[in-house]
Amino acid sequence: MASRYRPRNATTPPQGRRAAARQRERRVQRWVVALFAAVLALIVAIPAFGYFNTFVLPPRQVVVQVNEAKHTLGEVVKRARATVNVIAQQGSDPEMAVLPFEIVNNMVDEELLRQNASSVGVIVTQEDVDAEIRRLHFPTPPEGQQVDQASLEKEYQEVLRRYLNLTTFSESEYQAIIRSTLLSNQVREKLSSQVPSVAEQVYVHWIKITDQNLIDTIQNSLKSDASSFVSLARIYMRTDAYADQNGEVGWMPKGAFPSLDTVLFPDEGKTVELNKISEPVLAGDGTYFLKVTQGPETREVSDKMRDVLKTRGLQQWLNEQRDANNVQVSFNSDDYQWVVNKVRELSASPQQGTS
Question: Is 13 helix (H, G, I), strand (E, B) or coil?
């Protein structure tokens, strides 16, 4: 006889259903907590990354590398801020449009000097550095006034301390800058044996301007009245290191201002036309309107022009070192703007620094 037993469909007892529901609920809760934690971490990470990217990374960014030596954007800020503070104390305004670029170039030159000055027999000792710092900051009492040495020494230490506070340089940082300056001066003098004492020269007058918007105004005035050269020099030319207020520079040898040589010293067989005012000549430091009134003539080089030629000799040596060494510079417009902004920020908060 067939059995009447039939197996019942499997069912989940009420307790099992509740346990499964609790498991699902816990899984959902874990996912919710994990998602919330991820969102929270992202919210925290965004400003943290922004802070790191804005305040931590830039100062550590390498902008100058000469062989194995590296210098950072933070160093550029520190040097720029020091320069701004010193110039401001003197009552002048710094040229922030060019200052950061000058500092970067100076860093390259200083490193080349530190690494290569010995190749021309120039060595600067710690005693040399200490003596130069003392020369720069040691007080000079009024003539006839008797001051004991201990008082002068105390004042010297105080003057030096105030300068370091003003610039925010450490003693070692300031000593490194002074060492580079001494190396530069001594290499320049070492190379001066190559500067001629007699050379072919022409007698030069110029109007030098840095505002390119003035070029057409001056050029049109000169074309309409060449005799206005002196009056235009007095009106438009700022204080110049080589020309007087009338634009008179004097006897100038070839090579003193290489960017002007093509006008002042034409190709062999040609001579510059006397008393003719040149077209505007664009050079690295400005735009020149040139006039030659005497020469060419072979004559003794003046002390002023010898100094110029010494500086050109040093720059040529540095250019040769740039070619001979591994020099890398990474400084773009964004870096420039960051430096300018940081210097302004630090100037508003004098107690802060840049690592």
Answer: coil
What DSSP line would sit under 77-121, residue for residue?
HHHHHHHHHHHHHTT----TTTHHHHHHHHHHHHHHHHHHGGGGT
Question: Coil, strand or helix: which one is 68?
Answer: coil
How far is residue 271 from each of residues 203, 263, 283, 294, measured CA to CA in Å? Answer: 13, 9, 21, 11
Q: Which of the 8 DSSP states describes residue 244?
A: -
What pLDDT is recorded for position 55?
46
Q: Rounded distance, CA 189 to CA 122, Å?
A: 10
Q: Which of 161, 169, 165, 163 is nearest to 78 (CA)?
A: 169
| 270-to-106, 115, 202, 300 alpha-carbon distances in Å | 38, 43, 13, 22
Does residue 235 contact residue 246 with C-beta atoms inside 8 Å? no
Q: Which domains does the chain have, with CATH numbers?
A: 62-192+311-348 (1.10.4030), 198-300 (3.10.50.40)
Task: Give the β-pairing of 286-300 and 69-72.
Answer: unpaired
Task: Judge contact between 324 and 254, C-beta under 8 A.
Answer: no
Yes or no: say if 152 and 141 are a contact pair by the CB < 8 Å rule: yes
**Per-residue confidence at 75, pLDDT binned at 50, 70, 90?**
very high
Residues found in the chain: 355
pTM for the predicted model, two decimal places: 0.74
- Residue 295 is predicted with a pLDDT of 92
More confident residue, 268 or 115: 115
Residue whose structure tokens are 């309409």: 224
